[in-house]
Amino acid sequence: MSYIEDYYNSYDEDERLLSRHGQVEYLTTMKYIRECLNGISEPKILEVGAGTGRYSVTLAKQGHRVTAVELIAHNLELLKAKLDGSEPLTAMQGNATDLSALPDGTYDLTMLLGPMYHLYTREDKLKALVEAVRVTRPGGYILVAYCMNEPTVIQYVFGKNKLHEVMELNMLTPDWKCVSEPRDLFEMVRTEEIAALDAEVPVKRVKLVATDGATNYMRDCIDAMDDDTFAKWMEYHFTICERPDLIGASHHTLDIIRKI
Predict the structure, then answer these.
(1) What is the pLDDT of residues 177-232, one digit of tens each?
(2) What is the rounded CA–CA span in Å between residue 72 and residue 95?
(3) Residue 169: phi, psi to the nearest 5?
(4) Residue 180 in contact with residue 186, Cβ under 8 Å?
(5) SS3 for 188?
């Protein structure tokens, strides 16, 4: 795990989500978290791959009971530093592919908002999904975030003139699927791969959401917006973020599924 540890030991994830363009993903994810929690009295929440606690700490400070599991010790330290001791949050180190320390059927909402970015085989992705479903109560929600393939091809391979480099490294399949290894840090998927994973576990999809949509194609423009214009951008984004014809072009997606 040294590649991931090295990356997160020096990367400020909070700064990304607090940037104007990063807020789109954060505000969208929080919108759907609230929808999943609506009508549940005193929900129990689990976040697997909690990072530095951008979501877990926020939810705990709102009074929700949260268990935060994080692989990287550095991130876990930053998460705990945000707490004053009054929050109903339990933080522990752990791996998304093995949640054996947690009991079956416990959580009303289980979130994997980062682990699938760094799991490079279908087997490991499925292990993480199986574990998330196992610890969720029947009828509970599972939110799973993914990094998408096509924005990487468009913005990195072509936009940054990396085509010859990635082809020499055999990082593209003949049908333009990105091939990642741990040293590449991020794993890219397509919508059909997400659906195929869901088909392996006892869940029903509620919706698949483009959490940032077109935002990352125009970061400078988004970051330069005044408050009123940004509010209108969010209004537009929320109008289109569930449209199936646009989801695969989003840099990040949120798969909202419910345990049968």
Answers:
(1) 999 988 888 999 999 999 999 999 999 999 999 999 999 999 999 999 999 999 99
(2) 9
(3) -90, 5
(4) yes
(5) strand
Delimit the domains of the chain by residue range: 2-154+186-259
pLDDT band at 3 (very low <50, low <70, confident <90, very high): low
Neighbours of 121 (CB within 10 A): 9
What DSSP element (H or E) covers 142? strand 136-148
SS3 content of the chain, % helix, strand, coil (to 5): 45, 20, 30
How far apart are alpha carbons 113 and 253 in whole angstroms?
10
Buried b (16+ CB within 10 A) or exposed e, 187-222: bbbbbebbeebbeebebeebebbbbbbbbbbeeeeb
Q: What is the pLDDT of residue 11?
A: 59
Nearest to 113 by CA among 83, 139, 91, 146: 146
Q: Which two tokens stand for residue 95?
A: 């791996």
Strand partners, 148: 189
Per-residue tokens: 45: 């929440």
Q: Which pLDDT band, with edges at 50, 70 and 90, does 13 fall under? A: low
Q: Give φ, ψ of 68 to 5 degrees.
A: -115, 120
Least confident of 17-31, 71-85, 91-105, 127-141: 17-31
pLDDT at 82: 97
What is the residue type of 30? M
Mode of pairing for the β-strands spanning 188-189 and 136-148: parallel
Q: What is the pLDDT of residues 90-118, one digit of tens each?
A: 999 999 999 999 999 999 999 999 999 99
Q: Does domain 2-154+186-259 have CATH number 1.10.10.10?
A: no
Mention every residue, 6+ apart, whose C-beta is less than 8 A from residue 128: 48, 96, 97, 112, 115, 116, 119
The residue assigned the tokens 């954060």 is: 26
